[in-house]
Known about the structure:
The structure holds three protein chains of three kinds. Chain A is an all-alpha fold. Chain A has helices at residues 4-31, 49-54, 57-90, 96-104, 111-122, 127-134, 148-173, 176-184, 189-200, 202-217, 221-226, 234-243, 248-275, 279-282, and strands at residues 34-36, 42-46. Chain A has a single domain, classed as Orthogonal Bundle (MetI-like fold). A two-stranded antiparallel sheet of chain A has the order 1-2. The longest helix of chain A has 34 residues, at 57-90. Chain A is globular and about 70 Å long. Chain B has one domain (59-256): MetI-like (MetI-like fold). Helices cover 75% and strands 0% of the residues of chain B. Chain B is built from eleven helices and no strands. In chain B, helix 3 runs antiparallel to helix 8. Chain B starts with 6 loop residues before the first helix and ends in a 7-residue tail after the last helix. Chain C has two domains: 6-230, P-loop containing nucleotide triphosphate hydrolases (Rossmann fold); 238-353, CATH 2.40.50.100. Chain C is built from nine helices and 20 strands. In chain C, a hairpin with a 3-residue loop joins strand 16 (291-302) and strand 17 (306-312). In chain C, helix 2 packs parallel to helix 4. The longest helix of chain C is centred in the middle third of the chain and has 18 residues, at 168-185. Chain C is elongated. Chain C starts with 5 loop residues before the first strand and ends with a strand. Classes of the chains: A mainly alpha, B mainly alpha, C alpha+beta. Chains in contact: A-B, A-C, B-C. The B-C interface holds B 1-3 and C 53-56, 73-75. Chain C: InterPro entries: AAA+_ATPase, ABC_SmlMolc_Importer, ABC_transporter-like_ATP-bd, ABC_transporter-like_CS, Mo/tungstate-bd_C_term_dom, P-loop_NTPase, PotA-like, Transp-assoc_OB_typ2.
Amino acid sequence: MTDRKPLYLMSPALAWLTGFMVIPCLLVLALAFFRRGIYGGIEYTFTLENIALVFDPLYARIFLKSAGIAGLAAVLAVILGYAAAYAIAAMPRRRQPMLLFFAVLPFWSNYLVRTYAWIVLLNREGLIAAVAHGLGYDGELPKLLYTESAVVVGLVYNYLPFVILACYAPLSRLNPEMSEASRDLGASGWTTFRRVVLPVTVPGIATGFVFVFVLSIGNFVTPALLGGGQFQMIGNLVYAQFLTANDWPFGAALSMVLIAIMMGLLTLQTFATERASGARRQET
Amino acid sequence: MHGGPDKRLMLLILSVVFAFLYVPISVLFALSFNEGGLPTAWTGFSVKWYGELARNGEIMRAAFNTLVVATVSTLLATVLGTLLAVGVEIRRRKGRFLETIIFAPMIIPDIVLAIALLSFFSLLNVTLGLHTIIVSHVVFNLAFVCSVVRARLKTFDWSIVEASQDLGASTVVTLWRVVLPGMLPAVIAGALLAFTLSVDEFIIAFFTAGAGRESITLPMQIFAMIRFGVTPEINALAVIVMTVSVAALALSQRLNRGGLPGQ
Amino acid sequence: MTQPLLSISNIDKHFGTLKAVDNVSLDIRENEFFALLGASGSGKTTLLRMLAGFEVPTGGAIYLDGKDVSAIPPNRRPVNLMFQSYALFPHMTVAQNIAYGLEMERLPRREIAARVEEMLGVIQLSQLAGRKPDQLSGGQRQRVALARALVKRPRLLLLDEPLGALDKKLRGEMQLELKRIQHEFGITFVVVTHDQEEALVMADRIAILRDGRLLQCGSPREIYETPQSRFAADFIGVMNFLPARVGGGVLLAQTGVPIAADLPEGLAEGAEAVAAVRPERLHLGQSGADNSLTGTIGAMAYHGLDLQLHLTTPLSPQPVMVRLTADAAEGRPLSIGDEVTVGWSARDTRVFPA
């Protein structure tokens, strides 16, 4: 086929993406540099105030807080997810697809429902409390729901399947003879893991980490439901600027910073992948 | 075998992780059939909470809205995404820019796309409603359909297209009679995936639905209900929503056999 | 008599009901270039993995320098393996790959550097020390894998199909290169291969394995000239098999003519047998030969050094292969369809039960 036909097939979708993704995103970018109108509208004069406001100590603190929670969730998800992926890859080959399928299945059920399940478990009349009392514990239980820990658990729970998937990919392609070679050359099991398996599977870890971090830092559903509005994360802040405070330019500026963080991390991830890219040709 | 991972440790890890993944969901399942509706005591098996759902007008309307949004956006996205996939795969040059645009809807944080679309629609003075949700859902849905279909086309033997043309078929006839049958399972799998995503999508819908209750979708309804606390109806609703998405995904997976999207 | 370097004693390895290695005993001497030869599924790789320590024998024992090492894990054995896939660490450079095993011995940094340097010289890759494995050609990767195992100066170096991934021309060069390096380092090599030609060229001694059992062990010459079984005769080189039967104490071909040959013990009167003779042991004409056959030339192939004929003869259902030296062939012009008679001597004939 000639090279013109593809364009003709692609154009409806590309037009859609341009009209309803590229232009709106550029609009947000532009919005971040406009002034907020007195009654919540937008005044079309250039300003850097919104960007500056993001770095105001008040908001910078929220940024750091969000980054801390997102970072913790990402680290926990990567540890659990990597361990699970490693265990799946260690099972007999023919069982692996099924295990992987069931590890990822929850990921495709509704996010709200999965978060809600933790409310059922953690609330004051929830299952954990019921079990504790059933076991004869009469004292006051520590508050479980509406805490930072609940938010972290919720984030880990929701994104864990993706991390398993991301880590499984390089682990399953790992040539088992490589670990054997390391053992043969005198390395212990732990040294083999640290010096051979881990460096080669870094791309999966990086992908998983970036994914969890980016989606967590911009999340507003989980803090709203499991954090009970006790504290704000970037996502909640953006949400508030658009739907309640009506300061769109500032909301746009916040989300630009979010995008910048994401791009930065994706670049890092690409770098990590390229560093370990030698893995590709040896995979058997 | 020396040096292999310890099988018992591996099984332990798997048990812990699978328990973590499935206990919360299973609890929800069990509770939705609890006559008393409370997590504290099992008072007997009952489907009465499912009956309550059917009688709840708000929920039924939200479910209907969701069905409309998911169906229309899936149909649109399937056509656009499939054409895009075919176009990209038969194109010889692979542009980095093109790849980024196609990939972006899948990785862009929902909230960013949500506020972008909200700003865009309000700037153009578009009245918000189900139609704006549909338009917005098509953006990410078409990207997912495209990626599923492309995965299938990667293993497609393009020489049969040339064979068809050599035998005198036009491009349209070739697409219809040679290319489409080969990729139909992937197209259906992509459509099912898009449908699931659309049924479950909350954030973008929340921002592009506008004020008022007419265009509320099921996830928006669930979000509103959850904020008021745990009720037996939500348990039942949660189970239904979860079952629908998982069933659609399992079917999609079966059709496609190429692994989960995103893999 | 000196103690063998490696002694494999009645070793078994079972995977469930499968007997991958079945009661194999072998001695391997210091400085030997030893080949384990067999088809896939013969148990040769399992045997090698037991020597490396990746599999524990189900029964029997492995003695290295007189000590039982059967249960010692691979990282504590003075034995190194060059993997079939090379298994180079993709995130490390050539030099780092080679240094890895020495770092595990916790040698001083300076000694590691010196030994890596020396090894790079041996494999002639000093210029590429900083490259990653994916920037190397197949032959270069093969040499790095060899260097990485060799640099540890193991008592025993195991090589799993070392030349399997190389193209034919490179393989020929590397066969000689491996022999040179083995000689230079004075390390005992055990090579696993399915390629009989490779085993014949490289090894001092060959063990043929089949279905987990040791069929025969000996020098290439012994194995080629006096195979102990029909399988070994067929597996190594090219062999003509003539169906026969024992009658009146002698071997009779399927046409009834006697074939002069030493009968092995245990072949009873009337038993089915085959007479085996190598193509190069057949000569034109029958002067001075104990046996002869006459056939029609069905096909001819010129190979430079020799001329191969396919003879259709009543003695065998398959065409008989004859390999004439260029000299012998020049004496008489041959063409397809010609009838020729070839002869061979009794001592070049091996007899096996059918």
